[in-house]
Amino acid sequence: MRKTLLVSFLLVLFTCVESMFEREKGLNDWRIENLGSIKDLKFLENTSLVYTLSEENVLTLFDIEKQQIVWKKELPSNENFKLRYLSRNLLVYSEQRALLINSASHIIYDVQFDSYLDPNFSVPKENSGLAVEFFELNGHVYSVFAKDYKIITFRDY
Fold first, then answer.
1. Which of 37, 57, 90, 157 could bond to 75 as cystine, CB 3.0-4.6 Å?
2. CA distances to 20, 66, 85 from 101, in Å
3. Would the pTM count as exceeding 0.90?
């Protein structure tokens, strides 16, 4: 009788447990439900903010402390984007395109590399790929891209 009562009590107790801590009861797991499968992230210095890029190419600025999304942008799904971060600016780039975005979600520039490369330029059989550098000089943020033996430089504002 005691065993049956103890087993019944334990079954009822375990079926009622919904979270590890009482304060987490009913909360969603933001890492999975809101941000997608994260493939890259960059933290903003001295803040609780983090840029995330999902496998589905959704770029998000997320506040870890408040556990809420500040803003979200959908990027073209057919490109393999990567992230670089410097001085509250985020460089989002792929082999075809580059965007410079600040933490307020303003796009400083959005460029297609094809428009800067000469289509008549003869490239060796193997593509040179894309090299990227991102730096700050005299109060401006510069992005430098080297692709197919050409260098393309962009500056904020």
1. 57
2. 38, 22, 10
3. no
Nearest Cα to Cα of residue 142 among 129, 152, 131: 152
CA dihedral 52, 102, 81, 78 (to 10 degrees): 100
- Nearest alpha carbon to residue 148 among 129, 125, 120: 129
Q: List domains and CATH numbers for the chain.
A: 2-155 (2.40.10.480)
Cα 126 to the center of its chain, rounded Å: 30
Cβ count within 10 A of residue 38: 16
d(CA 76, CA 65): 29
Q: CA 36 to CA 47: how far, in whole Å?
A: 22
C-alpha of 10 from chain center: 43
- Go through the chain and tell me how many residues it has: 157
Note the pLDDT of residue 149: 62
